[in-house]
Amino acid sequence: MAVIEDDPTTSAQLAGWIRAARPELSVDQWFDRDAAEAALRRERYDLVVLDIELGRERNAGVALINEINKQGLGTPVLVVSAMPAAIYRSIMKALDAWDYLQKTTFDEAEFIETFLDILRTARLREPKGGARAADDSLQLDPLKQRSAMWRGQRVNLPLTAQRILATLHERAGEVVSYEELFDVVKSGRNRDNVRKHVATIRDAFRDVDPSFDGIENIPMRGFRWTAT
């Protein structure tokens, strides 16, 4: 296990809870992005617990999740952060984090229950026949503009379009209603405006992949991410 947290008290608490629940587990503690990144490249962890902010780096945890995703090992990530869960849970899920706990809103019992549930789920998953090539997947960093990567090429998108893309990708295969997309549109919360943002996303993807057809329009309801 790895606990990546810059506050020594919080790090000791989380590591202590893990050791108390599962004494047989080995827990490494890392306090900054550089040390954690080196460890992630060197070790294969069964689960990583990390904070988003590490020291002065506001989004260091996002970079670490991207590093984990690049390895293609399916390492479970539990994010423990002071950032508001209402905003950041969906963002972290879009980055393939397994779960999100907001600091000061959970206790030891909830942490251990979440931690053990992730471990059980990970171990029950059948091994995949091989990691998908990195350039075949959509890689997202919704915290920054113009950062989506599609098949190894950067897709330039304004922030609102990036948020809509993250929401569609998080709900891949499901219809996301106009009303649900209104939640990520800060102004112009109407169907015409959402359609314009989706058109912007399609155009941006087709700039790098002319054959892109991964967003399905569901008449009168919303949109569905269908790309693989």
UniProtKB/TrEMBL annotation:
Q: Does the keyword DNA-binding apply?
A: yes
Q: Which GO terms describe its molecular function?
A: phosphorelay response regulator activity; transcription cis-regulatory region binding
Specify the domain of life of the species encoding this protein.
Bacteria
Modification 4-aspartylphosphate occurs at:
51
Q: Name one Pfam family in it.
A: Response_reg
Listed under GO biological process in this entry are: regulation of DNA-templated transcription
Annotated Response regulatory domain ranges read 1-118
Q: Which GO terms describe its cellular component?
A: cytosol; protein-DNA complex
SUPFAM superfamilies annotated for this entry?
C-terminal effector domain of the bipartite response regulators, CheY-like
Return the Gene3D superfamilies for the record: 3.40.50.2300, Winged helix-like DNA-binding domain superfamily/Winged helix DNA-binding domain (1.10.10.10)
The reply on keyword DNA-binding is yes
Alphabetic keyword roster: DNA-binding, Phosphoprotein
Q: Which InterPro entries match?
A: CheY-like_superfamily, OmpR/PhoB-type_DNA-bd, Sig_transdc_resp-reg_C-effctor, Sig_transdc_resp-reg_receiver, WalR-like, WH-like_DNA-bd_sf
Checking SMART domains in the record gives:
REC (SM00448), Trans_reg_C (SM00862)
Record PANTHER family: REGULATOR OF RPOS, TRANSCRIPTIONAL REGULATORY PROTEIN CUTR
Identification of the protein by name: Transcriptional regulator
Upper lineage ranks?
Bacteria, Pseudomonadati, Pseudomonadota, Betaproteobacteria, Burkholderiales
